[in-house]
Structure formats: C-alpha cells, structure tokens
Amino acid sequence: MEIEHEEYYTLFSNEFGSPRTALFTGSRVCGVLFFEGFDAVGTEGAGGPAGLVANAWEFRRILEPGVYHDSWRQGPWHAGQPGAWEGTGFLAGLDGVPPFAEGNFVEWIILPPVAGQSAGQAFSAWVRGNSTSTFPIAGSVQVRYSPTGGTSTGATTASLGDFTQLLDENSNGSLNQWEELQANIPGNGRIAIRWVGNLAFSFSGTSVNLLIDSLTISNDSATPPLPQPGETIHWTTALSPIHLISQQVVPAGGTLIIDAGVQVFFDFNTPTFGGPEIHVAGGALRLEGTATAPVLLRRGINTTRVPGVGVGSNLLETVGNSGTVYAVHVDSDVSIGAGQSALLTVRDRTFSRATPIDWFSDTDSQWQTPGVSAHQATLVLENCNFHNAIAEINDSLITVSGCDFDNSRLHVVRFPIAQTVAIDGNNFRNSNVVAPFELDGYDAHLGPNNVFTNNFAPISLRGGGLTPDSVVPAIGNEYNRIFFTGSANGEIVGPLHLPPMSVPYRQWAGITMGQQFDGRINYMPGTIVEMDPGTYVSSLGPARAEVRGTPEAPVQFLQAVPGERWITFQTSNNPPLIIRNAIFDGGEFGVGGVDTKFTVHDCAFTNNIEGVRSGDYCGANISKSRFSNNAIGIHAIWGGGQGAGAEGVFYEHGRFEQ
Q1: What's the 3-state SS for 237-283?
Q2: Inter-residue contact 127 to 175 (CB < 8 Å)
Q3: CA geometry: angle at 367 spanning 366 and 369, to 5°?
Q4: Could you give the C-alpha distances from 631 to 207, 347, 398, 583, 646, in angstroms and in order?
Q5: Which helix (H) or strand (E) holds 364?
Q6: Can you tell me the distance from the alpha carbon of 599 to that of 579, in angstroms, rounded to the nearest whole number?
Q7: Staple 94 to which of 70, 146, 299, 449, CB 3.0 to 4.6 Å?
Q8: How far apart are CA 246 and CA 251, in angstroms?
Q9: pLDDT of 420 over the 80 cut
Q10: Where is pLDDT greater, at 516 or 180?
C-alpha cells in the first residue's frame, strides 16, 4: 500500500493489543505479518497473561528448588518503572530467590503459529532490564527456532527441546536500556524467546527482571541483500539503520556500495578466528560517504569485542583474488583491515572510541580498540582521524598522509618487506604513555610536514630506522628523543640506518642481533645515541653494527643518565668489523669482542671502566685513538686469539693491559 502525504496506518491489532500506528510521509509500508505491542496483555494467570494465552501464546518455566517466578504481567505496574519502547506498555517478568539461596531458571515464551511465515523474513523484539543496576537482566535472552514446528522445551534448565536453532542472543549481564533482538527467520517453524540465567546467593535475596516490547515479524529481511558475482548492490538510506546479526560476505565479482548517510550497526561478533563481520572475499566494498553525510559504522551494545570489516586473507590461495575496499567519509567505532594481496584505500575516515586506551593491557588494545589494520596488503591512508584508536600495519606497502592521531598510535611492522614507507603531513598528539609512531624493521621516511606535540616521545624505533632525509622535530614532547631498541627479544629486523636528527636517539633496552633476520645497524656520521643504564648492543653471527663517523661528525655513544653506566658495544662471530670516528663515553666496556676480529680507528674512549676489551679468540686492531679517564684503556683478557694491538694510541689516565 502506498501512503500519500501524512497519514496514519494501522499495522496490526487484536482484541487485547492496541493498534501499532506509525507516521509515514510518502513512503511504502513494510509487509508486517505479525505484531504484538504488549500494551494490553490481559489479566495475570499461572499460564501467562490471559490476553496472550487466548491468542495461542505459551508460557513455560523450569526453576531449580528455591527459585520463584512472579507472574508475567502488564508493565509498567508501579511508579519508577521504565517507559515502554513504543506505545504505552510492555510484557514484564521477574524471577528471584529468597535470602541465603541461589539457583538457575529458564523461562520460555512461545509465539503462536504465524500464517505466511517463511524463510528470509525478519524477527524483531526489544528487551531490557529494570531502570537500575539493582534489578538487571541476568543471564541470556535468546530467540530460538523449532524447524519441525514442535513446541517441546525439555525438562531441565539446559534443555532446548524442539527449539534447536539459535537465531539471536543477548548475553549482556545487565541491560538498563532497550536493546533490539533481531534475526532472519529460517522457515515456517515455531519461534520462542528463551530467558535463561542464574540467581546468585546473597544475604538479602536476589531478583531479576525481563521486559519485552514491540515484537514484529515482517516480510523484510533482517539485513539487506548481498551482491552475487557480477552484481552491484547498494545499501541505501531507505534501509538505514541496518543491524547486522551474522557475517556478511562479498564474493568475487560482486560489489557492495554503502551509500552516504547509511548507519550500519554490528550487533554480533563472529567466533574468534572466524573472520571479520563483513568479509570482502574477492569482491569490492565501497563506503561512499560525504563530508555532510558520512557512512556510520557502529559497534552494537552486545558485542564483546570490536567488530571489523576485512578484505583479503592470510591464506596463500587468496593471492590475486582477495578484493578491494574503498572507504571515504566514514565515521566508525569498528575496525577495518586488509589481508594478503588486498588493496585498501581509506580516506576521510574517523576511528574513535570515548575512553582512552589502556596501553598496558594487550586485551584492550587488541580486542576493544577500533582502527585500521593491514597484513601483506597495499594500504593508502589519507586524511583520517584516529581518537583512542590504532593503525596496525604489518608487512605492507603503505602511504600515510594528512592523518590526525590523538592519543592513538601508528604501528608499522615490516618483515620481510624492505621498501621504505612514506609518512608525511600527519599530526601526532596527546599520546602520554607511548610514542604515537612505532616502527619495527627496516627504514621509514618521515617527511618534513609531520607534527609531534604533547607526546611521551615522538617516535619509538623497535628494530627499525629512518632514512637520512627524515625530519624529527626538536621540541614539543615530554622526551624529545627518538627511543630506540630491538623488536621481539631485542632483535634487529633487516638493515636499518640511524642518521643524525635534530634530537638524539635514546637506547632504552639491550639489543642482541642474531642470525635469522639479517640484522644490520648503520650508525651514520653525526648520530648521537644516549645509552640508558645497563643497555648494550651485541651482534652475533652475520649480524653487523657498523659505526662509520667522520672526523667532523663522529658517532657518539653517551650516558643517558649522568653517572649511570651503560654496558658495551660488542661483536661476536662477525665478518671483520670496522669502527671509525666514534666517541664511547661512560660505558663498562666501550667496545668489546669475542671469536672475531675488529678494528677501531680514530675513536675516543672516555670515562669507561675499560675502553676496549678483546675477549676469547678475538683480535682487535686499534689505531689513531685517544683514551681518557678510563680505568683500563685496552684489555686483552685472554691470549687465545690475536690479542690486541695498538698503533698511534694516546693514553691519558688509563693503562694498556695484555
């Protein structure tokens, strides 16, 4: 039926329920098969409210000893009760236990047979607890389906009887606002609401409430259609708001376009490792918002972790068929991610949540924080806003420009992708606990137009480095330093460079470069490294730490905390290593080595316990170097190798021992 202008239309009425009335303006009425507004349910009775029982509703319960049920009744029934979701009333039930008791309960509400019910139709009902946390919903409210049409519910609190299929569930322990249960109906079988929970022991007794309102079965599906291969489907504002209750898959060759102004609520989570809630598997997803009408993606009240939109996979068989996502002008508190071989373009998108991130909790940062992620993909990230959110980029080709990171983090993990990433024109601010940009592996290019203000520190390099043309501001943060250490287990991932910047590097943890990641650090002329107490650089096997300063611009290793010693810069089992034009100040053993040969040329060693230590099976050639205020200048602790040889070496307040 087409409604012209502004008219009222009665969707459904019966003897005991008042009509459901909606105001339409030039819109088409949905095909409503069944509606109960619970505005007049009839008198209370042992089998349920008389008005509902007369219309073939069934009410059953299984209560453990000590648990009592207060009859289903018309709500609200006293002052202080919450208002209805719609209309004037709702269905209300209460279960409880007396003081010093506890027990489980199950309440069943079985709907009448619905003429014309079939697969693809939509079920909707609104539920909540009472108005305060003292009287919450407890346990789980489920929508269940009996494929056979049978109405057996079993004999125990764990029984399901004929209602074997779960359509939707709200397992929030306490609901103090109206929330929607929504499901696609599989066929013409019977539908029931199952309320199951536990009443905990207390000294004063415990009671819990369930309120139900506006139950509808309609011809509309609960979620809009998805494209088939070769097909393009639009989710339009006429369908908005859209509530997703199951995983949506965009297949290869299909295109899903979410139009400007559409709201999408993710009212469920897929099982862990079950993939994203919207999965683009070879097709294309386009979120085409505008500045004045962005696409809104929202986390549902019942999701235990942040839902996500994902494209591609980490599985090799998806290479070349992983799909694309294009998102522009999107306001979101859900995540978006890309897997292997996928193309992800994100522009003018907001990722945000209200509460600050608990940076000390992996659970919070991984499961509760919205953001963007990419793994072995290609990512373009432009003009996006991150507020209490994270961009996590793994082994991908990326550009990041024009983005605002407010108490947020851009984390780039790169192994074995060695192509330099470009990051410019971004605003990093208000990250008081961690650095807002963190790099693991290889080099990144930081352009001249990034702004870092009010952060703990601007940058954290964990096994990564910077290109010589990078720019890091000298002021604006609590620590105007580039924090530097290895990645996992102190490793260096791939070759990296530490060029001189306007601020020093600060090494805050020990580094051990091993044999599996091709670890190489190139300390460039003029670089200053402040070494925290107890830190060191140790290179094993083929790993190398190359120090190549110049007379005009030596590399400097200094104490980060005056009077607190760092340990050593040492090498083991390496190809011949040359250290040129460097200053080592305030360490325990400035330079050391075992099982290898190294050369120290034109360096200065000051205020160390030992300037140079040549260890077991080690050879050290020292030339044109100055030793000042060291307890021992050069120390060869065992002559099993070539020992230590010195030429053109000047000692001041130190000695040479071999």
Answers
A1: HHHCCEEECCCEEEECCCEEEEECCCEEEECCCCCCCCCCCEEEEEC
A2: yes
A3: 75
A4: 76, 59, 50, 16, 17
A5: helix 362-367
A6: 6
A7: 70
A8: 16
A9: no
A10: 180
